[in-house]
Amino acid sequence: MLKGKTALVTGSTSGIGLGIARTLAGQGCAIMLNGFGDAEEIEKTRAALARETGADVAYNGADLSQPDQIENLIQNTVETFSNVDILVNNAGIQHTAPVTEFPPEIWDKIIAIMLTGTFHATRHVLPHMLSKGWGRIINTSSVHGLVASINKSAYVSAKHGIMGFTKVVALETAQSGVTCNAINPGFVHTDLVQAQIVDRANLAGTSITDAARDLLSEKQPSLEFVTVDQIGALCLFLCSDAAAQITGIPIPIDGGWTAQ
Ligand code: NAD
Q1: From CA 17, how far away is CA 56, in angstroms rounded?
Q2: CATH code for the structural domain at 6-188+227-254
Q3: What's the pLDDT at 249?
Q4: Catalytic site residue 155?
Q5: Structure pTM?
């Protein structure tokens, strides 16, 4: 379905981003991976993805908190694959603390990576998409782009900001063949959530399994984690012709979290 297309997925060395990259590559899409991690492990991931899917897969380790590195990332993607048709703004981090104790430098970093990084990546890819009359921008927001939780002020602010940005880009590109949407996952069992489960287990003196169950039972009525494959499938749908008129919206994938 995506043969001849190219996707840049930021924050795709693990978790949701890697799941999205795997799904798109499985449909023949060339992939630019991005994110942090051990260089050897990343190369193994890149090579395995290319081998398993037959797609072209490259990697660029740009830091999404650095605007000049984002510009180089887009340039490098276009030089490597001649274009960029799909952008998934997915890189992200989490930090939990009450507002009064929230370290200002971590606030700045969260906003820089998740919100400002999304702006820079989008502004650099859009001219390429507009010149071809086709493009898909998918912003990984979160249920926390729609509702709040305590101790996540920077994260909730960045994810709500992404929702506004998504709508503006959708309006500005409405007649161009480019769509821009947000996906809003509930809990997905990735490194980012594992850190919260471990903190919870340590605090309550419970097992990791019990802490994971408690985390879900507080927020996610299905009591099951969303999987990265389910998120990949949603992104694939957004890249299809069937989704050409879907633009500027949040799409929760959250086991009922935001229905409450
Ligand atoms: P993860 O920690 O597995 O993945 C985060 C990715 O972002 C990694 O590839 C990491 O290297 C990369 N990254 C972090 N800082 C970066 C930077 N400065 N520059 C470039 N890359 C950077 O976590 P995940 O759960 O897969 O998170 C991916 C996205 O999904 C995030 O935006 C997160 O907020 C969002 N999300 C996660 C959940 C969940 O439950 N896991 C729910 C909703 C939304």
Answers
A1: 17
A2: 3.40.50.720
A3: 98
A4: yes
A5: 0.98
